[in-house]
Each structure stands twice: as C-alpha cells, then as structure tokens.
Amino acid sequence: METLDRSYFESLDQVDPLAEFREQFDLPAGHIYLNGNSLGVLPKAAKEKAREVVEEQWGQGLIRSWNTYDWIHIPRRVGDKIAGLIGAEPGEVIVADSTSVNLFKLAAAAVKLNAGRSKILSEPGNFPTDLYILQGLESFMDGKVRLVTESRDCIMDAIDEETAVVVLTHVHYKSGAMFDMAAITARAHEKGALIIWDLSHSTGAVPVALNQVGADFAVGCGYKYLNGGPGAPGFLFAAKRHLAHLEQPLSGWFGHANPFAMRDDYEPAQGIERTLCGTTSVVGASLLEVGIDIMAAADMNLIREKSLRMGQLFMELIELRCGQFGFGIVSSKDPAVRGSQVSLTHEQGFAIMQALIARNIIGDFRAPNILRFGFTPLYVRYVDLWDCVDALVDIMTHDLWNKAEFKKLTAVT
Ligand SMILES: *Cc1c(COP(=O)(O)O)cnc(C)c1O
C-alpha cells in the first residue's frame, strides 16, 4: 500500500482529470473549503453574469428584458439543464421557489393524486424543513392524512397500502448515508404509493437517474453542489406521466396556462409550468445557471469516483492520525451507501470546527456533536485533505480548540 503522506496526495492531484475545473472558481487564497455541501463556491463567471444581469438586463433593459432576455422562460430553461444532471427529460424539471416550498407543492399534489390513502411516510431525523413542511400539510388536511416516520432500516417494510406518498432525502444531510433509490422507489410502486426524493445533497454530488428508477417526484437545492449562490432558487421534478393530473395548492399566476391573459379563473399550464407559483428570482436563477453550466461540463462518473476516493482517504487519515483524540466516524465505509461527505462525531465538535475555520479550513457543525466535511471534486484537491487532517492533528495535540472564542455559539453553525 502507498504511504499516506503529503506527497502522495500531491501526486493524486497531478493526475486528477477534474483538476482543471478548480480554475473556474473564485476560492479565496489559502482556503480549504469542505463545505460545498452547504454553500457552494462562487464561480468566476457568476461575477460577470451578476454584473450583466443587474447593469444591462435590469438597469438598461428594464421591463423590456422579460422579452429581450427571455426572463420569462428562465425557470424552464434552467430546469431543462438540471434535468440532464438527474436523469430526467426536458420538460420534467423547473427552477422555482425554495426546496421547502417545492416540497409542499409536490407533497400536497401527491396526496391528492393518491386520495383515500391516509399516510405520508418519512424518516425521523430527516432534514428538519422536510418534516416541518409535512407536519404543516398534515395539519391543513384536517386528519385526512397523517405523517408517520420510520427508521431507515425499517422504511421498506413501513411502505404499505395506506401510504399515499413516501418522502425521503436521498443522501442524509448529517451522516451522508445514501438510500437505494431504485429499491425504495420500486417498493413504493409495488404498494401503490408515490415517492418524492429530496436531492439537496445529491444533485451534482452523486449520479441520480430519476427516470431509470421510475421516480414520481423530486425536489432539490441550488446553492449546495450546484454552486448557485446563497439563497439560489430550488428546483422540482415531476415525471411526465403525472403532469396532466398534477394539481398543486399554490396556484399562482405563473402556473397558469396563459399568465398574461389576466383572466379571473385559474387554469393550469399543460406542462411542468403548472408547478410554478409566482415570479422566479431572475438574478438568482441566472447565477444558478452559471453553476449548472460548469457542472454539466464535468463527467459525473469522474466526480463520483473522486468524491468516493476523497471520502475513503479522509477516513483513512482520521483513523491513522487522529485515533487517540476521541473522534467517531459516522459515515459508512461502503461507497454504495455514502454520499459526498464524511461526518465525524466529537463531544467538542463545535469548538474543534471553529478552530479549523479560524485557519481558513472550512467545514461545518451540526448539533449535537457532528463535524461535517463535504467533498466537491470540482474545486477541492486531494492535498487539501492532507492539510485539513494535519491541522486537525495540531489542534487536538495542543488542545487549541479549548478557547473561549471557539465556544461561542454562532447563529448559523
Ligand atoms: C439544504 C436542504 C434543504 C433546504 O431547503 P430550503 O428551502 O432551501 O431552505 C431542504 N432539504 C434538504 C434535505 C436539505 O439538505
């Protein structure tokens, strides 16, 4: 076996087929960024695009730009590009709203499509907004449906004839654990249930083949692995076979068959546009498109290969060099069930992460004790992993985390 030293990691970077993508990102000098699973890095081209959209399209074009720059079709145009990243067809994906709002629209639509069934199934410990949105829907349904959560290991058996819709996050935000999308989708259909996949930690991170597995619906996030910028719009997917019957509760004017006919009565658009509600952020969607264009130019198989290798090497380094410091490794060593992050536990996790961040090595912390390290193969180098663990060894050996300044809880962790 290779010796795990810094030069070994440098040698991996030298033959990395994705290495040249790093140039396209405006990563501040001296930073190691292992948090692209929470907020992706600024693409250099997004700066010019922001200037163009604000100064030219908005500033000079004013209202005319709805037509001259085709603002009106941005949700669909950018959605079609995302479709290529998640194994969907053009016309099945649209950019709109936030992931949370998109989940509400689709969960309500699914419950209506499967009327008469009483159960929405999810897992405890799913991303909070997913559970909160489903709780909100449950409360609006006046007892007609109830949210039931079952642990990951029992989820297959919990899908039954009473299940209207299964709502799961493909890659878990805390542990990085990945569900078998094909198997669970097949089970849902066997029982007559619909399924919604939350792809927030999957899109741009792991291969996703929605139509190949026969998924019904999906939602996802623009500001994580797609590098769309803080608060970038989210997206949603609805399989073509459902579009004609899909009714969603936020029936705003952008979902109308003809928004500018300005009629009093709602009539849903024929296609995926019926899932729109109001005006999509043009600035947000334009910047998201820049991130997606970069992602679309990269080979997802290479991304996955590098991401898994990074995860494996990171865990090996932690075991090799941090064994005596009390870290636990939460993420699975089995690549079949691991997304693009590695999570560690430590009782001083928050302070340790703050000490790393003070050195411009940026991961994040999730209560109560999880340190997350996300791997984004387009701009993270192998040598960054070595340097990160090297800093961790220093921080732990000399108790450098044990300072008041590293223990003050911040609003966003
Ligand atoms: C990040 C994330 C979201 C984000 O939802 P917003 O509406 O954009 O705030 C939703 N679901 C999951 C699983 C996430 O990881």
From TrEMBL:
Gene3D superfamilies reported for this sequence: Aspartate Aminotransferase, domain 1, Type I PLP-dependent aspartate aminotransferase-like (Major domain)
Pathway per the UniProt entry: Amino-acid degradation; L-kynurenine degradation; L-alanine and anthranilate from L-kynurenine: step 1/1; Cofactor biosynthesis; NAD(+) biosynthesis; quinolinate from L-kynurenine: step 2/3
Protein's name according to its UniProt entry: Kynureninase
Key words, A-Z: Hydrolase, Pyridine nucleotide biosynthesis, Pyridoxal phosphate
Superkingdom of origin: Bacteria
Cited function: Catalyzes the cleavage of L-kynurenine (L-Kyn) and L-3-hydroxykynurenine (L-3OHKyn) into anthranilic acid (AA) and 3-hydroxyanthranilic acid (3-OHAA), respectively.
Source species of the chain: Photobacterium galatheae
HAMAP family on file: Kynureninase
Top EC category: hydrolase
Modified residues (N6-(pyridoxal phosphate)lysine): K224
Biological process terms in GO annotation: anthranilate metabolic process; L-kynurenine catabolic process; L-tryptophan catabolic process to kynurenine; NAD+ biosynthetic process; quinolinate biosynthetic process
Lineage: Bacteria, Pseudomonadati, Pseudomonadota, Gammaproteobacteria, Vibrionales
Cofactor: pyridoxal 5'-phosphate
InterPro entries, per database record: DegT/StrS_aminotransferase (IPR000653), Kynureninase (IPR010111), PyrdxlP-dep_Trfase (IPR015424), PyrdxlP-dep_Trfase_major (IPR015421), PyrdxlP-dep_Trfase_small (IPR015422)
Gene that encodes it: kynU
GO cellular component: cytoplasm
Subunit structure: Homodimer.
Pfam families: DegT_DnrJ_EryC1 (PF01041), KYNU_C (PF22580)
Family the UniProt entry places it in: Belongs to the kynureninase family.
EC code: 3.7.1.3
Catalytically driven reaction(s): L-kynurenine + H2O = anthranilate + L-alanine + H(+); 3-hydroxy-L-kynurenine + H2O = 3-hydroxyanthranilate + L-alanine + H(+)
Binding site for pyridoxal 5'-phosphate: T99, S100, F127, P128, T129, D130, T169, D198, H201, Y223, W253, T279
GO MF: kynureninase activity; pyridoxal phosphate binding
